[in-house]
C-alpha cells in the first residue's frame, strides 16, 4: 500500500533522520533544517511533514525504537498498550519505518553515538510521564531495564537500515568535532550544496534543548579520543 503516493511529490527528496534517544538526533535535525532548501519537522508522528510546501527537500526526525519501529503491527500494538497505561512509553508514530520505505526518493540519515555515552545521557536526563487510575499523571525516572532495551532494540534497527543503498550514517563525535566537513559530505548525499548558515543558524533554532541553543554546538558532549 502506497501511503505517500502523490504526483506533485515525485521529484522531491524525502529525508528520515533516525537515531537512538540522546544520540544527537536533535542537533543533527537543527543543522540540516537550517538549509535554505530543506523543510524539516521534528518528531511528527503522522504524515503531515510530507505536505510541507516551498522546499525541494522535506523530512522528519524520530528516535528508534521509542518513537518508531520497523513494522506497522508492532507500532500499533505498543501504542495501544501505552494508551491503557500498561507500558511506560513515549508517543509513538502511527507509521512504521517500513511505511517510510515506500516513499519515492527517500533518503535515510542515521546517527550513531558511543553506546556508553547514550546510556549515561539517558540515565541522567530521561523521565517518563505515566497515567494513574485517578486520571492524574506522575513522573518517573526511566529504569535501567528500559534503557538497555531501548539501546539494544534501537541498535538492531539502525544496523539493519545501514545495509540499505539509500542510507547514510553519521558519527555523533564527528558531527560535533568536525562539523563542517561532516555536513559537506551529508549535503552531497542529500543532493544540496553546503551552506554556512547550517552551522551558524542551526543550533539557534534547536527548541528541544533551548538551554544550549544560544551557545552553538557543544563540543564537550563528544567522546574523548
Morphology call: globular
Based on secondary structure, the structural category is alpha/beta
Strands ordered across the widest β-sheet: 2-3-1-4-7
Strand content: 15-25%
Largest sheet: 5 strands, parallel
Question: Spans with pLDDT under 50 lasting ≥5 residues?
Answer: none
Helix content percent band: 25-40%
Written as H for each helix and E for each strand, in order along the chain, the element string is EHEEHHEHEEHEHHHH
Radius of gyration: 17 Å
Report how far apart the termini are: 46 Å
Instruction: Report the average pLDDT across residues.
Output: 82
- How many individual helices? 9
Kindly state the number of beta strands.
7
Describe the protein in words.
This protein is an alpha/beta fold and 225 residues long. It is 36% helix and 18% strand. It contains 9 helices and 7 strands, in the order E-H-E-E-H-H-E-H-E-E-H-E-H-H-H-H. The strands form 2 sheets. The protein has a 5-stranded parallel sheet, with helices on both faces. Helix 4 packs across helix 5. The longest helix has 18 residues. The protein is globular, with a radius of gyration of 17 Å. It starts with 12 loop residues before the first strand and ends in a 12-residue tail after the last helix. The mean pLDDT is 82.
